[in-house]
């Protein structure tokens, strides 16, 4: 048994995914997209190139709620999927350095 793995049932994931879908249709989300900025790299993108990203992935117990979703460009979104959590942290940190 591995205590570090959060148990998330398929039902939980499905419920949160449904909530995300609702959120994606909301005016609140449309307004966020209209700002045209990727949460992770800070780059400017047309709204139709931004996707909804979950800060904590649903499969790891994240919620489909406003404080867990951010607009992300396609590159950040796909990197987040494929990088290990540690590699992802490094990736995000590189943009934080640029802002200093
Ligand atoms: Zn980005």
TrEMBL record:
Residues 27-78 form the HNH nuclease domain. Gene3D superfamilies: 1.10.30.50. It comes from the Bacteria. InterPro entries: HNH_5, HNH_nuc, NA-targeting_endonuclease. It comes from Oryzomonas rubra. One of its GO terms (molecular function) is endonuclease activity. Keywords: Endonuclease, Hydrolase, Nuclease. Pfam families: HNH_5. SMART domains: HNHc. This is HNH endonuclease.
